[in-house]
Every structure is written in structure tokens, then in C-alpha cells.
Amino acid sequence: MSDKTQAIANFLNDKYFQEVIKEITDNHLQTIINSNQTDYEVREQAYNRIACINELINTLEGIAKTSDIKSKRWNIF
């Protein structure tokens, strides 16, 4: 595993990082839940932020798993 993928994997597995991501996501979910019926823009902004966080995490997870995928690919052939 390269230094880059190992660093990202360590970062993703860090309990403090996971807590912060969960807290941010939960805050945005509460914004959606507690918004008024007419607050479309507020809900849309909170939703977009959650989607951005999810995309970032998914991208980092993909990078972290790249070496696992490459090592398994060689085992198949």
C-alpha cells in the first residue's frame, strides 16, 4: 500500500474524524428536520452539504481501497 493510500485509510479510520463527520452530517439533518415548510433553500443547502460530505468520503474510501483492489486483481489472473 502506498503512503498516500495508507494515510487516507488511517484518516478515514480515525475515530475523531468519524465523530466530526457524523456531527456535521447530523447538524445538517437537524436543519432539514427543523426547517419550516417554506424554507426550501435552507433544506436544499443542507442536503447539498450532506451530499458533498458523502461524495468526499466515498472518494477517499475509493482511493484507500485502490491498493486492495489492485492486489486482488493480480490474484485472479
Count structural domains. 1
Which radius of gyration do the C-alpha atoms yield?
17 Å
Distance between the ends: 20 Å
Structure summary, number of beta strands: 0
Structural class comes to mainly alpha
Helix content percent band? over 70%
Shape: elongated
Quote the beta fraction: under 5%
Low-confidence parts lasting 5 or more residues at pLDDT below 50? none
- Following the backbone from N to C, one meets helices and strands in this order, namely HHH
Per DSSP, the total helix count is: 3
Instruction: Outline the biggest β-sheet.
Output: none
Mean pLDDT rating = 90
Secondary-structure map:
Blueprint: H1 3-13, H2 15-33, H3 40-76
Helix pairs in contact: 1-3, 2-3
Summary keywords:
mainly alpha; 77 residues
The gist of it:
By secondary structure, this protein is mostly helical.
Explain what this protein looks like in three dimensions.
- There is one protein chain.
- With 77 residues, the chain is an all-alpha fold.
- The chain has three helices and no strands.
- The chain has one domain (3-76).
- Helix 2 (15-33) runs antiparallel to helix 3 (40-76).
- The chain is elongated and about 50 Å long.
- The model has no long low-confidence stretch (mean pLDDT 90).
